[in-house]
Amino acid sequence: MEPGVYAGRTLGQEDWLALRSKVIFEACKWDVQSEDHSVLAGFPLLIESETVEFLQRTAEALSQEALSAEQEIVKQPKLLRRLGLPRKIRCALRECENSGSSPQNLRVMRFDFHFTSQGWRISEVNADVPGGLIEASDWNSLFADALSGVSAPTNTSEMYAQAICDAVGSGGFAALVHATAYSDDRQVMRHLSLYLKKKGIEACLVSPAHIHWVDGSAEIRSAYASGCPRILVRFFPAEWLPNLPNKDSWQPYFSGSKTALSNPGSAIILQTKRFPLVWDELKSDLSTWRTLLPKTREANYIKSMLDDYSILKPALGRVGEGIGMPGITPKDELAEIFWSARQNPMEWVAQERFAAVPIATEKCALYPCLGVFTIGGKAAGFYGRVAERPIIDQNAQDAAVLIIETARGEIQ
């Protein structure tokens, strides 16, 4: 079985520097360097149209199944504890167990696909605050302009901005809620605000601390802005929200908000890696998930040190952090992860390991990951990353994803 994904040629130095400048100054991609290596790959991932269609179709099925399961879980408070969610969040979610997720809320997810010895598999869904908007939008488009015989996939930010516009109307007001101290979060919100401006939507970049709630409706109160947004676009992890000063400042993200949310706090139900542990207690059809996600078990399933067939993942880990994989994770770090999982099993899961297949590049073999976005349950673009190890973490590079229009040998 062929993956339908290949590495394109590396751009020349002059073209590469011009492209990097454009994405910095035109698309707000400010974090282009991490320590001594470039965050951006100098070559694209080329994907065949048949693979595009398969991954889009599959991501849509995964999205619909996940949302159905989430609505069912919210109505069964006993399952929330098994998910390993913080107590305060469990209590907040129980407030909405009879109402479920509001239809006004706009859901955005990113499913991470890997090609393995057994075909395509997924490692997780980023259902809470999925990153990669800049890369899945302008980075893909800019790279496509530099080559012939290829086209960029759906522009994720364009589709997201349009979905927000459809939800609140042109001339509406949106609050882009994020951790303002982090430039890598700020750049995403600044980038999205530019797309919203094109749609006639005023966007205000704020901290969660700037949002106050009056009878369930959000208001911005700060020294530099005020007003009543029609939607809150949240790029602030749900598990961080209870750190805000008082319950009234964060609970409406989970229940009782009259202001539209993207994403609502209930998205953490799908974000936790412990989501598969409650599948057998649900009526929802999860057949696509069961086919593509490696078997997941409680962390205490592993009685002794990890073998070559299992990995450990933190339940609320992000960016590939904290993953314990024998032969890949350094031994001392692996031992620390194993000890933590044994001491705090509700914060971890054990998962069967799949054999990811690397692709050849001009310099070396690299492991690709294709993140497929869905917005409102519809496929909405691709985010590509490549890594030297079969763990896609903070050391991975962002690679443009382009659709092949001609025979591979004709791409210039």
CATH architecture of the largest domain: 3-Layer(aba) Sandwich
Mean pLDDT: 91
What is the number of helical segments per DSSP (H or I, 4+ residues)? 10
Helix-strand makeup class: alpha+beta
CATH homologous superfamily assignment of the largest domain: Glutathione synthase, substrate-binding domain superfamily, eukaryotic
What is the share of helical residues?
25-40%
- What is CATH's topology name of the largest domain? Rossmann fold
Q: What is the count of β-strands?
A: 22
- Radius of gyration, in angstroms, nearest whole number: 21 Å
The end-to-end span amounts to 26 Å
Q: Quickly count the domains.
A: 2
Strand content is 15-25%
Characterize the biggest β-sheet: 6 strands, antiparallel
Low-confidence stretches: 407-412
- The CATH class name of the largest domain reads Alpha Beta
Globally, the shape reads globular
